[in-house]
Automatic annotation (TrEMBL):
GO MF: glycosyltransferase activity
InterPro entries: Glyco_trans_1
Organism taxonomic ancestry: Bacteria, Bacillati, Bacillota, Bacilli, Lactobacillales
Membrane spanning residue stretches: none
UniProt keyword terms in alphabetical order: Transferase
Span of domain Glycosyl transferase family: 194-349
GO biological process, alphabetically ordered: lipopolysaccharide biosynthetic process
Record organism: Ignavigranum ruoffiae
Family matches, as Pfam families: Glycos_transf_1
Domain of life, per lineage: Bacteria
Protein name, per record: Glycosyltransferase involved in cell wall bisynthesis
């Protein structure tokens, strides 16, 4: 039997899907023998099929709570599919790029394998129901059973060590700079920006902790002071709590739906864009590496791991989380200062190679080697 490492990721879309694919692609490029179990709903499925991995197992997962419950109850079908598909391989190690509802179930199929689990959100976001649901599917047990836990920011290393009894077994490996969207064929132009304006962009799922209310209140202030700006809010989620803030707001467009992979580049590639992350709390953000790849200026709340992410690229303007006036002042400054915008773009261009996926993969290979010894 050939010894391999298993990539265990059964999520379908968003930052987790992007992270899992780019990590796996980089590990392939480093020559690590891999097999993988992924969801049939994975939005990067076509790209996964093109990777030079030993075996790709694609399983039916879930797209609703009802499907999650029913397919979890009849888990035996998926279990048999995985075991049969990988029967000719010796699973020595498992990497779980992001915890999903079935991560622990799949890991437990190979009890002799050492596991590395990437914990994206050590602390639940405000209003995060998904974290509670993951606990019902054994997130805490999974992390306690892991040989090594990877977090994305230094600020959470000690916290995770203490919480899960993993002293000396928690490593910080940052996100790589996102390149997958530029590699896609058949890209779609989903948004057009006014070229005579500074176009502020909020990109991502609409959630309470993302600070949409703060952003809209801040933008109202700057739109009263200058006429050379616009604001685009793009992402899926319930926007109803914020619609009243759109009244009498000039140059605001809301694209309230899931943004397809082929559309992502069109939001960031325009040279007039400034990306804003007005988060109230956060562990890290997959939006920052996308913005850096496209060399966009950033305004970022000083919360959680966001500060560390920005500092790793030596760019971005920091504002106090939840402070409408501070955010408005920073947005106004960047709108009025072309030299500042240019400087931030140059910083992003100069430093975007700081966190390459090749470097990330090498860090994982080092952990795998340490587990074997």
């Amino acid at each position: 039997m050939k010894s391999v490492t298993l990539i265990n990721y059964t999520g379908s879309k968003g930052g987790g899907a992007q992270y899992a694919f780019e990590l796996t692609q980089a590990l392939c490029q480093e020559g690590l023998p891999l097999v993988a179990v992924i969801s049939e709903h994975n939005e990067h499925l076509a790209e996964w099929r093109s990777l030079p991995i030993e075996k790709l197992i694609v399983i039916p997962t879930y797209q609703s709570v009802a499907q999650l419950i029913s397919r979890s109850l009849f888990w035996q079908d998926q279990k048999n599919r995985i075991l049969e598909g990988l029967k000719d391989y010796q699973i020595q190690q498992i990497i779980s790029p992001m915890i999903t509802f079935w991560t622990r179930r799949i890991n437990r199929l190979y009890p002799k394998a050492d596991s590395i689990v990437v914990l994206h959100d050590p602390i639940a976001h405000s209003g995060d129901r998904n974290k509670r649901a993951l606990q019902l599917f054994g997130e805490s047990q999974l992390l306690k059973e892991a040989k090594e836990i990877v977090v994305l920011s230094d600020v959470f290393v000690s916290y995770v060590e203490d919480r899960y009894g993993k002293e000396g077994r928690v490593s910080k490996i940052p996100m790589g700079t996102t390149q997958v969207y530029g590699q896609l064929r058949d890209k779609i132009q989903a948004v057009d920006y006014a070229q005579d304006k500074v176009n502020f962009l909020f990109f991502g799922t609409i959630s309470k902790y993302k600070g949409i209310e703060v952003l809209l209140q801040a933008y109202q202030k700057i739109s009263q002071a200058v006429s050379n700006t616009s604001l685009t809010i793009a992402g899926s989620g319930d926007f109803s709590a914020y619609r009243h803030l759109l009244a009498n707001q000039p140059s605001v467009q809301v694209i309230n739906r899931w943004i397809a992979n082929e559309e992502v580049e069109s939001f960031f590639a325009d040279d007039s864009v400034v990306v804003v992350l007005p988060y109230l709390d956060a562990t890290q953000s997959g939006v920052i590496p996308i913005a850096i790849e496209y060399e966009r200026p950033l305004i970022i709340s000083d919360t959680g791991g966001l500060v560390e992410q920005a500092q790793s690229y030596n760019t971005g303007l920091l504002v106090k989380a939840g402070d409408v006036d501070a955010l408005a002042q920073q947005m106004l400054e960047i709108a009025n200062n072309e030299d500042l915008r240019h400087s931030l773009k140059e910083q992003a261009r100069a430093n975007k190679s700081q966190n390459t996926w090749s470097a990330v993969a090498k860090s994982f290979l080092k952990l795998l080697k340490e587990e074997k010894s």
